# Entry
Amino acid sequence: MTSLFEEISDPTPDDVPVNRVAITVNGQKRTADVEPRLLLAHFLRQGLKLTGTHTGCDTTNCGACTVLMDGKPVKSCTVLAVQAEGREVVTVEGMASGSELDSVQEGFKDEHALQCGFCTPGMMLAARALLNENPDPTEDEVRFALSGNLCRCTGYQNIVKAVLWAAAKDRGEDPTQAVEKYTAKQKGANQ
Amino acid sequence: MFPGRFHYASPRALDEAVELLQKAEGEGKVLAGGQSLIPLLKLRFASPSILVDINNLPGLDYIKVESDGAFRIGALARHGEIERSDDIARLQPTAAAAVPVVADPIVRSRGTLVGSVCHADPQGDWAAVMIALDGSVTAYGPEGKRSIMVKDFVTGPFQNVLSYPEIAIEATIPAPKGDVAGGFLKLERRVGDFATAGAAIGLEFNAGRVSRAGIALTGVGGATVNAEAAAEALMNSSLGSDAVMRAADLAAEASSPKSDHRGSADYKRHIVHTFVRRILAGIATDQERAA
# Structure
C-alpha cells in the first residue's frame, strides 16, 4: 500500500513521514506503510477496500464509521490508522462467520431495521458492543447505547427492536416473542 | 477530511514522551483520546510537527480511590471507564452525574477526563466538574511533577497553564472532609452536541450544614466559569430556600453567555439559574430522606 492514497498524495516527497503498521482486521493481520495522518476509516475503506465502514459526517457526530477496536466501539474517522497498530479491529465485514450472520445482523434483517442502510454498519457494531457487555438490555439501555449513532431515515423504532431481537437470540430465548412483548408494551403505553 | 502532515511517535516511557516534545521545540502535541484533537487536526485548526501518542504509556489508565477517599484518575482513563466505575458511582455524585452526558457513548470509549480538562473547551464538561470538586491536575515535565488546581489550570478558551513540554498525567479529586453530595445538569440539543448550558455542583456537609461548596458552569462564558460567590452563599447553610435562591442568582450573574443558535444569552442564564436550583433541591431532598 502506498503511504497515502491517490486522491490526497501528490508524488510523495522523500521527507514525508511514514510509519509501518500491523493491524489485525477481522482476524487477519494486515501490514502497511501509512502516513500518520491517515484516518483508520480511510485505511479500511481505501486501503483494504472494506467499504462497509461508511464515512458519514466526518466530524465525530454520526457514528456511521463505528468499528470495534479491541472490542470497544470507536468512530474510525476520529482514530488514526497508526493508533490501531497492534490492535484488533472488527468491521461490519467481520461480523458474520462464513454464511452465518451475527445475531445482530439477523435481527436487523428480521425487524427491517434499515431503510437506506447508510447508518447500518455503525449501528450494528455499536449494538454488538452493547450486547457483549450487557446481554439483557432494556429498551432504554439500547437507546442510550446507540445515542452516538444517527439514522437520518429516523428508523430508530425498528433498530431498537432488532437489537432486542438479537439480545433474546443470544440468550437462547425466542427473539420474535421478545419483540412482540416490547411492541405490546409500546401499544399499551400509547393508549 | 484529513489532517495536514505530521510526524508520529508512540513512546513506551513518560520521559521519552517529554523528550520527544522537547525536541519538537514547541511544535509537538500530546495525543491521548484524540476525540477533540483529531477533529481539530482535520479542520486544520491545529498543525503540530509531531504527535506524541501517549496511549501506549504503561500504567496511566487507572481510577483509584485512596483510603482517605481522594480520587486519582490517570491520563488514559477513558470516560467510559469512569462511567463503569463502581467507586465513582458510589462515592462521587458530581462526576457520576456528568459522565453519562459527556459526548456520546462511542466517543466515551476513547476520550479521557484529563484530556478534556487540558483541552479547556468553554463548553466542555469535565473542567466544570473538577472546579466544583476543588480538583487538580498533575503535570510532568523536565523539572519533575507539579500539581495545579483546575480553577487555576484553565485560563481561557482552549488555554491551560501547562508549560511546554509538560504532560498532564493525572487528575485528582481531594479527600472529602464531610459527607459528599453533588450533581451535574447539562442542556444539549441532542446527544453529543456541545453544551447549551450546564452546571456542576460539589458539596460537603458536616452536621447537616454545608462545609465546602463548589459551583462551576459550562457553555456560558469564554472559559469554564468558576461561580465562587454562588458557592460561598451556600456555606454553613442547610440548603434552605433563601440560600438556594441566592446561590442560583449569583451563579446566573457569574455567567456571561453569548446569544447563538443554541439560545439567547438570557435563556442560557435562565437555564443556569434553573439547574443550580434543581441540583440543590435534589440534594436537599436526599438529605431529608437520609435524616
